[in-house]
Structure formats: C-alpha cells, structure tokens
Amino acid sequence: MTTAEVSPVFSVIIPTRDRSGLFTTALRSVLDQTFQNLEILVVDDGSSEAHMSRYQELLHTIPVPHRLLRLVPTPRGHGPAYAANFGVDHAQGKYFCFLDDDDQWVDIQHLDRVANVLEHSTEQIDLILANQRGFRNGMAVDYPIWLEDFVDRLSGTPDDTGAYAVTAAELLGCRSFCHLNTTIISQRLYVELGGFDEGLRYEQDRDFYLRAIDRAQLIRFLPNIVSRHNIPDPAFAANVSTTESELSKRLYQLRVLDKAILFSTRPEVRRYAMQHRLYVLEHIVREAGRAGQSETAHYYGREVLAMKMAMTWNKLFQRGSACRI
C-alpha cells in the first residue's frame, strides 16, 4: 500500500470472491473518479489462486493508496457483512463508501460532488445518499427499485451544492431503500452503529440502512444517477441473493425488521418495520402454502391476523389519544 501524506477523505471498500473479471470494471469506475483523495480496500473472501493472482495484477499498478485484504477461505465465504466490516477495520478515511464487485459507478464526478457537499456544510453530515439505475440482462429496467422517484416526493429545494436535506420519515416513504453502492457514511456514525450485522447473509444492507437513518443526525440526498446495479440472475449461484432459498430469505428479513422494531429510536422507523414485518409474514404464508406446508402456513397465518388486529387497535388508541389532547 502506498502512503498518503494525509488521511483520505473517502475509503472505498469492495468485497469480492472469484469475480476478478467483473471486479475489473468496478475498480476502473473508482479509478476514473475526478476526486482522488481516496483509498481503495479490496476484501477477498476466499477466491481461488487463479482469481487472487488476477486481483494482485490489477492492483499492482493503480496510482491511489490501496490494500488487498485476504480472508481465511471457507466453503461459503464469510459473507458480505463480515467482508465490509473487515475492510472498514483497515480503513483510514473520514467517510466510507461501498461498491459491489459486479456493479460500477457511472458518474466520474460522484465523489467530487459529495466532497463539495461536505466542504460547504457547517455541521458534520452523517449520511450522503444518491441514486442508481438497475439493469437486468444488460437492459435498463423502466421501474424504480431504489430511490429513483424520491426527488419527486420532496417538497424542499436543494442547497447550492445540489443536495437536499432529508429525514428518515421522508426516506421511509420510498418504495425501497438506498443501495450500498450509493451510500456514503461518516466514520463516526459507522462506529456508533457497530458496522454491519455479521449474522445476516441476506438484506444486511437494508438492516444497515434502517439503523443508519435511525441514528443519523444530518442526511443529504443527491438525486444524481451515480451507479449501475446489475440485478442478479437467479439462473446463476454466484451471488448471495440467488443462493439462499426464498423461505431462508424471509427469515433474514424478519430478523432485520424485528431489530428495527426493538431497537430503533425513531417511531417512524419502528412503524415502518412493523408494517413491513406484516408483509413478510404474508409472503411466508403464501410460500409455505405453495410448498405444501399447510401446518406452517396456518401457524404464520395466525400471526398475520394477530398483527393486523394489534396494528388496528394501536391506530385507534393513537387516534383517541390525539382527540383527548
């Protein structure tokens, strides 16, 4: 690793495993950034020797500070959450960025714009969020997946840097959440959160997002499309999203939402988690029914009914309390 005279503004963490070909495009998109006060940390989660040699070759000549961190190989790898945390443990930047090894940044001024937002703020910003476009089989999808329609929901105006001051409540009104490719978090907030939950193999990014917007004091949103996300093809088993069974994914989702219900400080985050937990349970009922697991479907179906009754009672209670005030 080369030594910078000062700590970098950004640490870019790229976890990878046996995808040196795709990784080449991701790495190039970081190197193409016009803002160069950054470092790159590549976390290899158990690649073969052939891929490891290619990673080393690619990184050997790049002009920015970098490290190639190799985890002890295991059959399934340590997972994206562990790899990201491991990268951050070795990072020196003031802000942390993440990029999937099969995706890429498409805006060469992405980090320049973020640095400008940070420079012109009189207070420390905890989170900077932006947009990306999804691609399926090489074709751009024509519907919102992340925060593509968020700017249309905002009532305020951007500041001189083009950034919007946004709240957790506004963000939770979106269809989905901000992908890690377009999430930049301060070192301070990352430490407060304790990083990613390494017990999650699926939707660890949603868990991280919910905890981050719950705890963040200042959040800025840049509406620019800065990243290309390649939606995993279920025909291949090279991605965590495609290797877990549907019911296994639902269990991870329940854990994410139960954590948000139990530990969030903002009531809007808790309400969001309660509502989405209901959706997940309804999915489990349908999927268990299709799999012929009628006893399981009935079990979770009773929980769905209980949750709906509890949420209805809670709304009536809140309405009655408001009337008395």
What do these coordinates show?
With 325 residues, this protein is of the alpha/beta class. It folds into 2 domains: 10-236, Alpha-Beta Complex (Spore Coat Polysaccharide Biosynthesis Protein SpsA, Chain A); 247-324. The protein contains 11 helices and 10 strands. It has helices at residues 20-31, 49-60, 80-89, 110-119, 168-171, 187-193, 204-215, 240-243, 246-263, 267-290, 294-324; strands at residues 10-16, 38-44, 66-70, 95-98, 104-105, 127-136, 139-140, 164-166, 183-186, 219-230. Strands 1, 2, 3, 4, 5, 6, 7, 8, 9 and 10 form a 10-stranded mixed sheet that branches. The longest helix has 31 residues, at 294-324. The protein is globular. The model has no long low-confidence stretch (mean pLDDT 92).
Q: What's the gist of this structure?
A:
The protein folds into two domains: 10-236, Spore Coat Polysaccharide Biosynthesis Protein SpsA, Chain A; 247-324. Helices cover 44% and strands 17% of the residues. It contains eleven helices and ten strands.
